[in-house]
Write a structure and sequence with these properties.
With 760 residues, the chain is mainly α. Helix content is 72%, strand content 1%. The protein is elongated. This is Anaphase-promoting complex subunit 5.
C-alpha cells in the first residue's frame, strides 16, 4: 500500500523541486558559444521562407540554449540539426565566415545584428530581445584587446581547439564601469586567475565553458526538478556530485548547491554526505541572511526550525529512530517558542509517521494531527493524515465502506485544489484496498486510472511526474494481477519498466524487488520446483520479515517438514496478533488448517477455519472469505459430507471465477468435481452416469486453468481423476490417454508425499 510520509519532505527554499537562487555571484559575459546562439537567432530572423514545424522547433530551442551551459560547436550544431537541417548550414557558414575571416568580419556581424530584428521579429522585452540587447551592450563595452581575445577564442571554438581564455572576466564586462586604458596589459597571472572561475559542466564526457549566474540557476533548477519527477533523466549520482563539487569549490556559500547535493546523496543512501550537505545548506542559508533580510530574527529562527525538522526526516529515512525522535523533539521545542503553528503541524505529522515506522499504534496522534491541520487551514497535511488513517485502518481490518468514504471525501478537496501528489497517493491506496478486498477488476481499473492520469503539476523540461511511490505501487499491483492470470510475459515487461524507472539504488526499488520475488516464488511453488523457491524465501525475508516467514512456512509444508512449519506459523501468528495484521492472520490460520489435514486431523481444523471465516467476513475480505469457504468445503468432503461441501463450493464459485487467480479457479473447479464424484457414488444407477459426465466436464474446465499456469502437479491429479472417471464410464481410449499423461507427469515430478486425496 502506498505510503504517505515521503510527501512530507519540506524545504522552505524549494517549490516543485525548483531551487530559487540568486547568489552565485557571476555575471553574464560574451563567449564564442553566445556568438553561435546570436548567429542562430540572426539566421532565424533573416530566413523568411521556413517551414512552420521547423520554426516552432527552433523557437522551443531558444530558451534552453540561452539558459543552459555552454556547448561545444559540435554539440550545438547537432542540436540545431535535429530541429532544422537547413538552419545548420546557414549558422555554420555565418560562424566560419567570422572565424576564417578577419576581426572586422566579427565587428560587422555585431553591427548588422540589430537590423535583423528591426521588423519586430523580437520585441525589446522578449526573451530574444533581452538576450540580444544584453550581448550587444556587453560587446560594446569591450576594449580593443578584449575584442581581439574574443575573436581568437571564436577561431579556436570553431576549429575545436581549447582556447586559453574561453571567457572574459566579469570585471571586463561591467556595463556601468568606464573603459580601463590599461586593460590591454593583462599578464599571465590574471589570465590564470580568470580561468579558475570556469565551473565546467560535463555533458556526455565533454567539458563545457564557464557558468554564468543564470546558467548555474538553470542547472540546479533542472537537476532538482528531474530528481523529483523523473530521476532517470537526471545526471548520474557520481557525475552530478562532481559538478556540484566544482560549483562549491569556487563558491562554498552557494546554499542551494548544498541542498541539491543532499538530494543527490539520498539517491545512493549515503548517510554521511547527505547529513553533511543538509547541515551546510542551512548553515549557509542562515549565515547569508537570505531569509533574515526581510524577516529579521524571524527569518533566522525559521531556517533553524526547518533545519532540525529536515534532519529528523533524514534520520527517519535511514531508520535511525532514536536520533529522529530527538531531532523532532528539538524542532517542536523551537517551534513552540516561536509560536510557529505550521512548523508544529509538520512536526506532528512526522511524529505519527515515526511511530508507524517503529510499529507502534499512532491512531490517536494521527487523529489529533488531522484536527489541528483542519483548524489552521492546512489541507495538504490534513489530507495526509486522513490517508495515513485509511492505511492504518485497512491493515487493522476496518470496514471497507468507511475507508472508501474517507478517501472519497478527501479526493473532492484534492481535485478542487489540484493536489496531484495526494491524488496519486489516493488512487494507489484505493487500488490496494480493492485488491485486499478481493475485487481484482476494480483494482485494475484504479491502477490504470493512475497510470493514464495527466499530471496536474506544471510540466517543466518536458518531464511529467512518474517516479513517485504511488506509480510504483500501481505497477506492482498490475504485475501481481497479471501473474495471477498466468501472463508472465506481460509481468516481465512491467518488471523491466519498473527496473528502468526505479533503479536498485532508489528509494522505492524495494517495492518491485519484493513484488518480483513473490511472483517468482509463487511460480516455482505452482510448478513444484521447490529447490528454486528456497532462495526466494531468503531474499523475501531480507525485504519483509513477515512475508518471508509466511513463505518459509509454505515451503516447509510442501516439503513435508510439518513440525518446523508449525513452529514458524505459531511464531507468525503471535506477530500478527501484536501488529493487528488481519489479512496475514487469516492466511496463517488457513496454513495451520492445512497442516492438520496432513495428519488427517480434519475435525481439529474446523475451529481454525470457522475463526478465519468469521474474521474475513467481519472485515469484508471477499477473496479470503472465498478461500476459507473452499477450505471448509474440502474439510467437509474429507469428513464425508459431500452434499454440504458442494453447496459451499457453488456459493463461492461465481466470485472465484470473477475475481480469483487461475490457481484459485482451478482449485475450486477441481474440488467441485470431487464433490460431484462423491455424490455420484451414492446416487441411483439412472442418475449416476449423468453425475459422472458432469464431473468429467468440470475436470476439463479445471484442466484449462492449470494448463495455462503450467501447473504440472495439479495436472497430474486431474489426469488421475479423469482416468478413473473414464474407466467407470467405459471410455477406454480416453482412459488410456489420461493414464499415459498421468504416468508421464508422475515420472517427471518428484514425489511430494501429498496426493489428490490429502490436499485442496
Amino acid at each position: 500500500m502506498a505510503s504517505v510520509h515521503e510527501s512530507l519532505y519540506f524545504n522552505p527554499m524549494m517549490t516543485n523541486g525548483v531551487v530559487h537562487a540568486n547568489i552565485f555571484g557571476i555575471k553574464d559575459w560574451v563567449t564564442p558559444y553566445k556568438i553561435a546562439v546570436l548567429a542562430l537567432l540572426h539566421e532565424m530572423s533573416t530566413t523568411k521562407p521556413m517551414a512552420l514545424l521547423d520554426r516552432r522547433r527552433l523557437n522551443k530551442l531558444i530558451l534552453p540554449l540561452q539558459q543552459g551551459p555552454d556547448l561545444t560547436l559540435e554539440q550545438f550544431l547537432k542540436i540545431v540539426e535535429e530541429c532544422c537541417l537547413r538552419m545548420v548550414n546557414a549558422v555554420k557558414h555565418r560562424l566560419f565566415l567570422m572565424a576564417d575571416g578577419e576581426l572586422q568580419d566579427m565587428e560587422h556581424f555585431f553591427t548588422i545584428l540589430p537590423n535583423a530584428f528591426s521588423d519586430s521579429e523580437a520585441f525589446k522585452t522578449s526573451v530574444v530581445g533581452l538576450f540580444m540587447r544584453q550581448m550587444l551592450l556587453a560587446y560594446n563595452k569591450l576594449s580593443f584587446s578584449q575584442v581581439y581575445k574574443l575573436y581568437k577564442s571564436l577561431q579556436q571554438y570553431c576549429h575545436r581547439v581549447q582556447p586559453e581564455l574561453s571567457a572574459l572576466p566579469t570585471e571586463d564586462m561591467e556595463l556601468t564601469s568606464n573603459e580601463d586604458p590599461s586593460a590591454e596589459h593583462i599578464d599571465k597571472d590574471e589570465l590564470d586567475t580568470a580561468s579558475l572561475h570556469q565551473s565546467e559542466l560535463r555533458s556526455e564526457g565533454t567539458s563545457q565553458g564557464p557558468l554564468s549566474q543564470k546558467q548555474a540557476e538553470y542547472f540546479l533548477a533542472r537537476q532538482a526538478y528531474l530528481l523529483k519527477n523523473d530521476e532517470n533523466k537526471a545526471m548520474s549520482p557520481a557525475k552530478l556530485q562532481d559538478e556540484l563539487n566544482n560549483i562549491l569549490k569556487f563558491n562554498p556559500d552557494f546554499a542551494e548547491a548544498h541542498y541539491l547535493s543532499y538530494l543527490n546523496s539520498i539517491r545512493v543512501q549515503d548517510i554521511y554526505i547527505s547529513t553533511h550537505s543538509l547541515l551546510h545548506y542551512f548553515d549557509r542559508l542562515i549565515l547569508s541572511g537570505g531569509e533574515g533580510k526581510s524577516n529579521g530574527d524571524e527569518g533566522y529562527g525559521r531556517s533553524l526550525r526547518y533545519a532540525v525538522l529536515n534532519l529528523a526526516t533524514l534520520h527517519c529515512r535511514f531508520g535511525h529512530y532514536q536520533q529522529a525522535d530527538l531531532a523532532l523533539q528539538e524542532a517542536i521545542r523551537i517551534a513552540q517558542e516561536a509560536n510557529d503553528h505550521v512548523c508544529l503541524q509538520h512536526c506532528l505529522s512526522w511524529l505519527y509517521t515515526l511511530e508507524q515506522m517503529k510499529g507502534s499504534d499512532s491512531v490517536v496522534l494521527t487523529e489529533d494531527s488531522v484536527k489541528i491541520a483542519a483548524h489552521f487551514c492546512l489541507p495538504y497535511l490534513a489530507s495526509l493524515g486522513i490517508q495515513s488513517l485509511v492505511q492504518q485502518g485497512a491493515k487493522q481490518g476496518m470496514p471497507a465502506n468507511k475507508l472508501l468514504d474517507a478517501l472519497r471525501g478527501t479526493d473532492i478537496m484534492h481535485w478542487k485544489q489540484s493536489l496531484s501528489e495526494l491524488i496519486e497517493i489516493s488512487l494507489a491506496q484505493t487500488t490496494s484496498i480493492w485488491r485486499m478486498y478481493g475485487k481484482s477488476t476494480m483494482a485494475r481499473q484504479q491502477a490504470q486510472l493512475l497510470l493514464n492520469m495527466n499530471s496536474l503539476e506544471p510540466v517543466n523540461f518536458s518531464v511529467q511526474q512518474n517516479n513517485t511511490e504511488a506509480f510504483a505501487v500501481a505497477l506492482c499491483h498490475l504485475a501481481e494481477l497479471h501473474a495471477e492470470q498466468g501472463l508472465y510475459a506481460v509481468v516481465s515487461d512491467i518488471m523491466k519498466h519498473l527496473k528502468q524507472q526505479f533503479p536498485p539504488h532508489t528509494q522505492h526499488a524495494k517495492l518491485w524487488m519484493l513484488c518480483d520475488l513473490k511472483i517468482q516464488f509463487e511460480k516455482a511453488m505452482n510448478d513444484g520446483k521447490y529447490h528454486l523457491a528456497e532462495p526466494h524465501v531468503t531474499a523475501i525475508s531480507a525485504l519483509n520479515s513477515t512475508e518471508g516467514l509466511y513463505r518459509k512456512a509454505q515451503l516447509l509444508k510442501a516439503l513435508n517438514q510439518t513440525t518446523e512449519a508449525s513452529q514458524i506459523l505459531q511464531q507468525l501468528q503471535q506477530q500478527c496478533e501484536k501488529s493487528k495484521d488481519i489479512e496475514m492472520t487469516i492466511r496463517v490460520m488457513l496454513a495451520s488448517a492445512e497442516l492438520h489435514w496432513d495428519s488427517s486431523g480434519f475435525a481439529t481444523a474446523l475451529p481454525l477455519l470457522l475463526q478465519a471465516l468469521a474474521l474475513s467476513r467481519q472485515h469484508n475480505l471477499q477473496s479470503l472469505t472465498s478461500e476459507t469457504l473452499l477450505h471448509l468445503a474440502f474439510t467437509q468432503l474429507m469428513l464425508g459430507i459431500p452434499e454440504q461441501a458442494l453447496v459451499l463450493v457453488q456459493d463461492v464459485l461465481e466470485s472465484v471465477l470473477a475475481h480469483g487467480s487461475l490457481i484459485d479457479k482451478g482449485r475450486a473447479l477441481l474440488l467441485a468435481a470431487r464433490c460431484q464424484m462423491a455424490l455420484a457414488g451414492a446416487a441411483a444407477q439412472e442418475h449416476r452416469l449423468t453425475a459422472l459426465e458432469q464431473a468429467v466436464h468440470t475436470l476439463d474446465e479445471a484442466a484449462v486453468y492449470f494448463s495455462q499456469l503450467d501447473c504440472k502437479e495439479r495436472m497430474r491429479d486431474i489426469h488421475y481423476l479423469q482416468a478413473r472417471l473414464h474407466h467407470t464410464l467405459g471410455n477406454i481410449s480416453q482412459r488410456n490417454k489420461c493414464s499415459m499423461l498421468f504416468r508421464l507427469l508422475d515420472q517427471e515430478l518428484p514425489s511430494s508425499g501429498m496426493t489428490v486425496v490429502s490436499h485442496l
